[in-house]
Each structure stands twice: as C-alpha cells, then as structure tokens.
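Hi team,

Below is the intake form for 4-hydroxy-3-methylbut-2-en-1-yl diphosphate synthase (flavodoxin) from Pseudooceanicola antarcticus. Please confirm the fields before the structure is written into the shared record.

FORM ID: S-0412
PROTEIN: 4-hydroxy-3-methylbut-2-en-1-yl diphosphate synthase (flavodoxin)
ORGANISM: Pseudooceanicola antarcticus
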Amino acid sequence: MSHNPVRPWRNIDRRESRRIMVGDVPVGGGAPISVQTMTNTVTTDVKGTLDQIIRAAEAGADIVRVSVPDEASAKAMKEICRESPVPIVADIHFHYKRGIEAAEAGAACLRINPGNIGDEKRVAEVIKAAKDHNCSIRIGVNAGSLEKHLLEKYGEPCPDAMVESGMDHIKILQDHDFHEFKISVKASDVFMAAAAYQMLAEQTDAPIHLGITEAGGLMTGTIKSAIGMGNLLWMGIGDTLRVSLSADPVEEVKVGYEILKGLGLRHRGVNIISCPSCARQGFDVIKTVETLEKRLEHIKTPMSLSIIGCVVNGPGEALMTDVGFTGGGAGSGMVYLAGKASHKMNNDQMIDHIVEEVEKRAEAIENGQVTAQAAE
Ligand code: SF4
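The structure came back. Fields below:
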C-alpha cells in the first residue's frame, strides 16, 4: 500500500502480523490500519450512544468501543450492536459476566484482560462466549493499571512490566486455544508507550492496537499522539489505532486519519496543502482554508487541494495536487486542475468555485475517469 517505486523515501515496511477480524473489519496481516474511537455517552442512553457512533462512523471511524460497566449497559449493547454501522468493541473491566453478556449482545470484540477477571473457570467461560459469538478480544495493557506483582517486581510502571503483563494475558488466551486477539500496551508517557510497543512488536505476531492513553485535550493530545504513534507507524508498527483525547470522539477520528494521511498509510477525503500566509498573500489564506475544511468535510475520496497565497510557492504546490488555487494580483487568482494552470477566478467567488471543482474531480476519481494526483 505504501510502496512507492518512484519515491522510495516514502516507503514504510509494515511489521508482519496475523490477521484477525473485528466484525467485518480485518485487523493485521497487511489490512488497512483501522481507526477507532470510543463513545463517552452513558451506554444505557441507547439513542445518544448510537448518535455518537453514527457521527464517528461518518467521520471515518472503522470500529467504535463502548463501555459496559454494568448489567444495564450490557442489555443496551444489544440494540447498539444491532443498529451500529460499524463493529462495536465492548470495554470490560474485571466483571467477567459483562464480557459474556456483551458477546451475547453482539459485540464484535471484547476489550478485556483475561488475567484480571478471576479464576480459571471464569476465564474459560468468557473465552467460550467469545468463541461461540465470533467475538475477537483485545488485551489492553495500561501503564496505569498494571498487576500488583509486576509493580512489585519492577518497582514502577515501565515497558518491561507492560510487555510482561501483555505476554501473560496472551498466554492465557493461547492456553485456551483462542487466537483471535490483538493487543495494546498504552501509557500516557510517549517514551514509555513507544518503548513498550517496540518491545511487544518483537515478541508476538498478534495485531497491535496503538494508543497513547490519556493524551490530553485536542491540541496537546493530538501532538502527543502524532509523536508517539507517528514514530511507531513510521517504523511499521501498528495495525489499528485510537487517539485518546479529552474531546469529541469525532475529533479523535479526524486526528487518527490525519496521522495516517501524514504518513501516506491511508487516505480519506481532501488533503489540503496550504501556506501559512504572509504579506504577499493575494487573498485571506487562513480564513479560506478554515472555510474550505468545513465545506469539504463531505468528500471521502482521497485527493489533494492546494491553497497558496501567492506565486512564490503556488504553481509548484499545484503541480502535485488535484485542484489548486494560487493568489495573484487585483483580487483574483489562478485555478489549477490536475497540476496545470486552468483559468482565473475572482477571490470573492473562489470558495464556491473550488468546492465545485473538488466535487467534480472527486466524482471523476470515483468513476475511474482520472487518478488522484497524490494518491500514493
Ligand atoms: S506562498 Fe506566498 S503568501 Fe504564502 S507564505 Fe509563501 S510567500 Fe507568503
């Protein structure tokens, strides 16, 4: 997918992992890196939860996780899983019964740590429920909730402790002949998470779910996630990811996609290339880009658009984009189509015009009439 014979410096060799299924979404084994998020509604508010899932799915979420803290939530999962447009992962902590109920309710995956749910009999029951209902499992190790014996052994949360915890959980599943699992070793500290993931990647061929947990608000969390996950993805590690932000789940999905887009690992929607603007700008670049980002949210076709303030960089950037606009003099600029200068357009009409051109181009790409300029 990211192998580019023309620009080899863009290649990323992805770690080979086993493939599992989360509902109808493949994870691992070279499948596209899926983007996940998690609802923050009360799960028993089925309508509110489904609304949020649908908004996240429209923004591009491939998989959505929902907390199942009690029996009433497990009951609500039935309708949620049935009506959701994407597979649902049930988030379970400690209560093995919730795991069984969620599997019965139609969850596509259980996020549960088998070592933390009690005795052998309980573990066997949850694994049987997962097998019976075609449910995969995500082992979710978190630096903040490591087992007591590991904290005593290592003194504090650290990558070795996290990986040991993960491998212990893996062993339990394997001992029960269960192999449909993926694993995460999350920490809010980017260094710890990155080291743990690298170590984990060497020790198992299970698909890896990436995350920098409790990363913070929209801005801080985005940057931390881009540094942590960006580095790991660049090394080829990661089969699915969730960006954790104290923000709307839709923002998590957008950030997840932007990280993948930035590395050329996945493409979705319009990739806008724009200059920071300066005294040379022929129109208000910042306001225009802000408006276009909103007006083009409905475009899912991978394609590119350059919005550049003046001729210093405009024609050069436009060469590699599907649609381009470069500011000029006297209240108008040049529209570029497929890298070539096409026609002039007044600044005051250019937003509607660019939206139209992008829509036309997206349709042509979808119909196979043209290829997106920067699809690779
Ligand atoms: S492209 Fe032109 S307007 Fe934009 S930052 Fe560069 S010089 Fe300034």
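SUMMARY LINE: Residues 270-367 form a domain with the Sulfite Reductase Hemoprotein; domain 1 fold (CATH 3.30.413.10).

Thanks, M.
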